[in-house]
Structure formats: C-alpha cells, structure tokens
Amino acid sequence: MSSSPRSAVIVDAVRTPVAKGKPGGAYSEIHPVDLHAVSLKALVDRTGIDPAIVDDVISGAVGQVGEQSGNTARWGLLAAGFPESVPGVTVDRQCGSSQQALHFAAQGVIAGAYDVAIASGVESMSRIPIGSQFGGKDFAGPTVGERYAPSLVPQGISAELIAARWNLSRTQLDEFAAESHRRAAEAWKNGLFDSQVAWVNELRTDETIRPDTTVESLGGLRLAFQDDYWAGRYPELDWRVTAGNSSPVNDGSAAVLVASEEAAAKYGLTPRARVHSVAVVGDDPIYMLTAIIPATQKVLARAGLTIDDIDVFEVNEAFASVVLAWQAETGADWSKVNINGGAISIGHPLGGSGGRLLTTLVNNLEQVGGRYGLQVMCEAGGLANATIIERI
Q: Catalytic site residues (predicted)?
C-alpha cells in the first residue's frame, strides 16, 4: 500500500521594504549578500527554528555577476549566521527566480528530498545594474537570432507590442499605474505591510511608492522606448509605455520557510498556507511577457480550479500593459488583483520579486479570509511561473 502524498506547507514569509535601485537609494551602500541575510535571519527569528534543520536554501538572483555572483545563496545564509552545514544554491529564471526557488523547495519537500527548506531571493540593482551579467555580449547566440530575425527585442518593446495587440490606450496604462500607487500607499498607511517586513535601516516604506501619483501627472511623462531604430522597425505602433506605467529598478530581498506537514508538527511550527499547485510555461520570446496567460490557465487546470475560485491574485506589474492583457484574457475580477498595489509602485527587485509577491500573497489571503491565492510572474525570454497556494 502506498502512503499518502506529502504536501509542502508555507510556515512563514518575509521581505524587506523595497528600495530604489540606484546610487543614493536606501540600500545602495549595503552589499547584496548582507541584504539577502536580512530576510533569512528574520525568517529564523520569526519562526524560532534552529537553522541547522534547514536542508537547503534555494535562492533567486538575476544579476549573477560581481557582488551577486559565486552562488550568492551560500554567502547569504552564512552572513545570516546559519551553520556551515546548511547548503545553498542560486537559480536564475530571470524575474521569476525566487518564485522558481519556491517551486523547487516545495517539489523537494513533496518528493521527500527535503523536510525543511528555504526559498529566497535578492537583487541589488543599485550595485549590480540591470543587464550587467551580459557584459555587452549576445546572450542568445546567432542561431536564435536567425530564428527570430531580424532580432529579439527589449522588454520595453514587448510591453509596447502587448499594448498594441490588446488595444490598450496610454490612459488605461496610466490609470492602472496610478491605482497601483494609491493601493500601496493606502496599505502602508493602514499598517497592512508592517507584519510582513524585515526592517533593514531607517527606510520605513517601499521607497518608490508615490502617494501623490495621478493620471494627469503620469500623462506628462515622456515615452520610454520610442527611438528612431524601434520606430522604424515598428512604424505601426502608437507608442504609450513610460517609466510611470512600468516597474522601476529596485533593491530588496525576501525569504519563505517551506516544510512538510510532518516536519512542521515535529518542530512546533504553525503553517500559514499550503503550496497547492505550480506550473511553468514558455511563450513567444518577442511578446516575451505574455506567458502569464497560459501559465495561469495551466496552473488552474492542474489544480482543478477556475479563475472565479481564486480569492486574491498577485500578478507582477512589470508593465501595466502586461497585467491589463492578462486580465482581458483570463477575466479575473479586478477587485481581487494586487489588492495592495504591485511592482509599479512597490518595486521590482528582480531576483527578490517572486518572494516578495509570495509574502504579500500569503498576507493578502489572510486579510480577506480567502482560501486560494494565485501568483504569476512574467519572465524574460517568454517564460512565466504560476503558483496557487491554499490558506490553512
């Protein structure tokens, strides 16, 4: 007789406030390993676990170069004071790296390879600027270039193509962005984020939230990606993407404690949610950011649920056009989507964003008293991770 399948539970999740990812940002003087360690240490302090019981620390980072290279997960856990016996590994699924870390941790627990694992992520974009890992080189190679001739495109162009394909106006994009800032500012004002953050220094909010943002103020911003080259490539585009309706560059980290139900009981841990279903998909690398649509469909089918069964959503706001297109295709209830703001306001610290969204999702699910939460993240190259959690 076979035993019942193991399940992976989320004991706790924590994140730092998100800082501006540029010189002068609140964390710009902090080494990314030490920024990572803040969330790891906070997770231990909050749960009271002996870090020696952790079977693995799986961490996401995108700019794996310079101070964020050399398997930053290992150095982060050592900086957090974990015993030398605890291993760590760093993964890269671009913006979904720490969401993928959660998937790997949960899969390891379900398979019986782990009893207790930590999924985490970090990005210091102030110290490792976006794209630093490429070193000015062609990362895709000539064969891929031939397949997608005349060339692959930057994410900003993908965001423009999505806006055009789904007929999304500049006003719609700016209205979405303004609402993200309003919701996030209101959440901080009402103390909704306080219990989910690990303080780093004097920063007491997410640094890129602008409470006074309006559609009118966003409307005055210049176009971010239109230039002679891309306008020549895509003369049909009615350009509408700006810095204001896109996510900013940021610094931040997050960490999630995952365990089997048996291990949680053994160590006196109280689970907050269960990892119900996960999925990862690929999609067109030119549109690049649309994979969240099939990823959502796949994870719902795998879970045996419909879009209406989900009580709260966290959809990464890489660009306003991405989330608006996703909603148009899925029919998700807007009142359940990013209820306390998203990356356009809170920020997008790349490798740390999956953990940040998961932390917010767990808390938002408890806030509304719901059962199911769905998180989905678009990723460079035409990828997306989707996760459904179930509140316990």
A: 95 (acyl-thioester intermediate), 348 (proton acceptor), 378 (proton acceptor)
